[in-house]
Amino acid sequence: MAEKGTISGKVVEEVGGLSIPSAIVAVYIDGTEQPVTTSATDEDGFFSIKNLKPGNYRIKISFVGYAPLIVNGIIITEKDSDRNLGALKLSSEQNSLQEVTITVQKPAIEFGADGVTYNVGSSVLAEGSTATDVLKNVPMVQVDIDGNATIAGKKSTRVFIDGKPSDYMTSNIADLLNVLPSDAIEKIEVLTNPPAKYSGDGEGIINIVMKKGFKVGFNGNVGIAGGIQGNGNANTNASYRGKNYAINGSAAYRYNVGRGESNSYRENFFPDTTFYYDQKGASKSKSRGANFRLGFDWDITPKQNIRVSTNYNDNKSSSNSSNDLRYLSEQLIQNRLRNQTNTGDGKSNNFVVNADYKLQTDTSGGSLSIGLTFNTNGSLDLRSFSTTYQPLGVSRATLQQNNNDIGNNGLTLNLDYDKPVFKKRDRVEFGLAYNYRKNDNDLLVENFNFQTQQFVTNNRLSNQFLYNENILAGYASYNYRNAGWGVKTGVRTELTDVAFDLSTGENYNVKPYLSVFPNLSLNRFFRKRYNLGATYSIRINRPRENTLNPQVNNVDTLNISYGNPNLSPSYTHQMDISFGAFGQKWSFTPRLSYSSSQGVIERFRTVILIPGSTTARSESTFDNVGTNNSLALILIGNYRPTNKISANGNFSLIQSKYTSKLNSALNRDGISVRGTFGFSMQLPQKTAFESNLNYANNVSAQGRNKGSVTSSFSARKLFFSNRLNLRVTLNDIFGNRNNTVYNEGENFRLQSFSTNNTQNFIFSLNYRFTKIAKKIPPPPVSKP
Predict the structure, then answer these.
(1) Structure pTM?
(2) What residues pair up with 220 in beta bridges, in sequence order?
């Protein structure tokens, strides 16, 4: 049969009728899971897909920020081979409760001038894992050994969940992400130029969008996974949608065993002496965590909607470690030895409630939104340190325990209004926000008195740190789009009031300061396959309790650390130029980014000689180390030679130049290199394969942080009409993940190496269940 069939149409916004360029249009033969072809709308929202065989088809249209639209029952015959679907309207993802009757594979990665979107459901690797695991495979995102995620080329990154800040409202964001189940996540947005609606904090935002479960009827999944390292997790998600309401919830449990080894070698240079420290350590830890989420969405009337969600997670951990420190003379002869064993027990919990009310204020599409977020969390960490010294054949011992009790409370209020203007071509937004945070960090340090056989409080190290922060913000933005042009401009103003004090009597009242954050984004779509974009914004990195708190951490008495209460905010001017080229089987989006930061906040290390001894102590704190000018070239590409094979990769080359008045040792430049490559393949018999490779080598103000190649290989098999899937994953096939740090100052050189048991073989099972209620018919599609 001749392949002369054509499906065409125009994609527009439901409210305002504006055309949507670069929307993804996927064409499926009825009863199949993979698209026969995909295309993108041109600058005026039109698409035309040709050379289709006669048959029954359906299409799915998706675009970032809008709910996917599925059109079923498209029949192409030899006599009627041209099917014009007319205007197809996409509705805002926030408002839409439209039915999605078929689960279709989205493109794994979607690109925009302001960032990248990673669709979690399109990844085999993402199934049955956690948010931390997923983030490791997101373009432009790097996850360190402690589970902290950052955007490539950005000195500070914030983590949001459903558009709400989560990082500054929990004692440890890594604990939350490490137990948050991936099956509850819809997508991850990497916002390199966050719009004015978002807080000015951080040079970029990682926004984790949770699944809302807006399918008609009862849907969900249950999964379990386990690895040969002794780790395992279980999770379940379920949702139910009625006529005008939806309920969704999830629960997850994680258990993990960690093992690691470390080695550091420090050269200490002083006018009258030179000596060396050679330290080796080993550690083992066990952790377990649980997470529970519940959400309710209700259309009170056709013009009113309320959404309420809650999240609770609980974590517990235990650890033990040991390290040996050899003191070496200038001739590399050992003259002393220190042995230390550490044990630790920790627990933390976090509870957050979000409530959002939305009202359509007029028939033109104007809406008013009110949001409230309340958060409370706490953590308790008890650690014991037993140390034995053997100087010149004489042995002595010390015993210390640290009890760190931390509490956080936070409240955020938002008021937002948006409205189409100028015949619904453009859109304006206004908003106010208030954010309150309180942190209470109570550290009790006790030393054991061997004569009285009792622990005695160490008043020099024990302290309570109290931190209060109030931020009042207002913003306005304007969105213009016409004839392939898109312009977003906005400004946000924030008034910050911070006060903190210590139980020892020091009080710090930071004078309230006003910050202004302009934001501009330009986009031009042309010739149906090209996109040129440019952005500019100012961002802020505020010092908070983790960097301000002067409490001394003397776990290792020769390597102590503490915060700096005299830190000032750091401001960053950042500019991006991006170019996107899209073909039917490929995409390529190079990006050039430049940023200039004043008063960069980074960890700064000094080594001092303890008076009256030949012992050198390393003191690590934070400081406004100076300015950092960074130029980054970021290349992101995707190639799909067939509808069953896909490859994607991203590469970052970042030139950083530090200039400091604090210390001439910080005047340095260097190049950071990061890269990721991903490959996926659909195989016969409902089998799929996916792999990812990652590498990072980063420069810092005092040296370099060099990581190893990390990898993930996964295979999946579907059973029982795609309801049950078995997945096997091999992490870090090339060896355990390791990290090497080079650090240099005026009188020291440090090289440290660490490795952890990340090489793992994981099995997982996941079962999806669906009970569809009577279908709600889609609105009729009008032909032009």
Answers:
(1) 0.78
(2) 238, 769
